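REQUEST FORM: STRUCTURE PREDICTION
Request ID: SP-0412
Submitted by: Lab K.M.
Chain count: 1
Length (residues): 325
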Amino acid sequence: MHKNNLLETVKKPHLVIIFTLLTLLFFTFGEILVRTNKNVCQNFDENRSTIDNFVCIEIENPPIMFKVTPNGGKEQIFYIVSNSNNQYLVKLPLYLYNKIMQEYENDKENFKYKIEGTTHQIYDSLKRASIKTYNREYNDNLINITNYDKYFGGTYIDSGESPTINIKLIFNLLGTFFLIIDIIIILSYIITRKNLQSAIKKYGKEELERQLNDKNTISYLKVGVYLTDKNIISTSTGFKVVPFSDIYWMYILKRKTKGITVGKDLMVCLKNKKTFSLASTFKDNDLIEIMQTIYQKNNSILLDYTNENIKKYKEFIKSKRKDVE
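STATUS: Completed
RESULT:
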């Protein structure tokens, strides 16, 4: 970033446009891949015992829900579905169950729905629960352990697992990730524009440009900090103009996640009681140099995060409150 076009560059939403396009790209690309690479499912009735098959069935009756608790596992929800010829065990995501029921309610007489998914072995507790549910639902003891495979086969269908769903899930996750970043960038851009307009109103665009382009201005392009003859101009965490004389205390703050340092900020505490990050980076070499250079401009500034400086700043704030009162 060149100093002579810094103010104009801040006005342009380059990152907003880039991340918005990336967000739309991943969501759109996921949909395209699902439609163009959709696997042809096998008819489940042709082979009801092989696991990890991508299969499909067509049902003609609404799903019958029941719950199963595998040995040592969490409670799971399954459904018995059927058509005029067979019964099936399926595991449905809630959104798909709701969609099926909506279609059933819309046209009960002509209801048909195609279910796709991956097959898994029916385990003992699932077998017992499905027998109990089916016989209670139809008020009959038709199905038992001996004839179970004749009615349900040896596998159930998990409609939450399919090649197309996995592809869509991956791209939706990526799209959501960039959407979150996009929202953060948009909010940051709005705040930065607002701060820039306030600074231009207060100092004047010509004066800010003069300070930025002065030969004596010290620039730290990597972190977006410019030390002019009178002020600090920062674009690191939003556009800020801070007179050296307004700073009371400075220190470097380590940002941590689960005990791991993920970044470092040069924090400034102003005499008007405002505290914010002046610059943010992963390495503290630049931050230390910036802090030392600012101190040369105003050697009354407190440096470093120490108990003594914490106490002094609290006392300063307390005295400011008394002055106001």
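NOTES: The mean pLDDT is 85.
Reviewed by: T.R.
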